[in-house]
Design brief:
single chain; 353 residues; alpha+beta
Amino acid sequence: MTNVTGRMDLQAFRARAVTSIAATETLEGLAEVEEEFLGRDSDLAAARRSLGGMDPDERRDAGRAINETVQDLEGALAEKRAVLERVQRAGEMEDEALDVTVDRRRLPLGTLHLIQQVTDEVVDIFVGLGYRVAEGPEAELAWYNFDALNTPPDHPGRLESDTMYLDYGDPADEVLLRAHTSPIQARYMELHEPPVYIVAPGRAYRNDTIDASHLPVFHQIEGLAVDESIRFSDLKGTLAEFARQFFGAATEVRLRPHFFPFTEPSAELDVSCFNCDGGEAGCRVCKGRGWLEMLGCGMVDPNVFLAVGYDPSEVTGFAFGMGVERLAMVRHGIDSIRHFIDNDVRFLRQFAG
């Protein structure tokens, strides 16, 4: 349609446009219809451009008629676009709908490693007895690892064949990976006045070859109690309560004389076999002995108190240390410490949860 200057022509144009708009079924098609009837190259645009050649009165009437046509078509396009958008959204929602009755894929949940489980359990027992948890650095000074704990310079544990020294800083400082968590006790006493009741869990490092019972990186939990008039009987009673809570209410304990540089007197703690309850010849846990060696302990040596600034004439105390891997192996009948580092899920799943 060209030279649209009359109302009848515009009415016909409007009718044709409205019919095309109504017949369109997609938003893309609607955009094409809009371009056809209202675009720069449409007949309506050509009619608007022809207004310049008309008489003023004729131009005023024709311009009003063209504007009314544009408004009518824009309104029809808007209504149709709204309808098509609702249809499109409904289709998208149907395509993306989720059937909530279908069971989702479930990823297996992780769990704490057995070593962490045992550590948490032991710490909880001592926290229940009034102890606090203390921590310290794994890269340690020889002073805290040995000297402050009354370990003499010629002790074999200070050799590089036993201890992992670090090439760091001044060699005279003797920086090393701590061989036990006992340095935490010395550091804690330096910063706190007695009474002291702490447990110190963490990793320890020794230059050991991996075999069924040794790892170069292992876990310890050490405890320390310092107060007025602490006796050896307090040590035995504390460890007996721990053993009953950890291994069972019927567990008995015994102390055998031993030697440690930082305690005097010192002892090894044995617990009665919870598997055979008396030493059956075929018991796989105690091998018929009836007792299980569990940890070292003793009364804190006065030299340790002097090293940290305590007066051994005013306070006494006891200390103990246990290997977490040893506790887990005994209680669960694990025959090799290597299972803890093999990352075999068949082993780990036995202790999930």
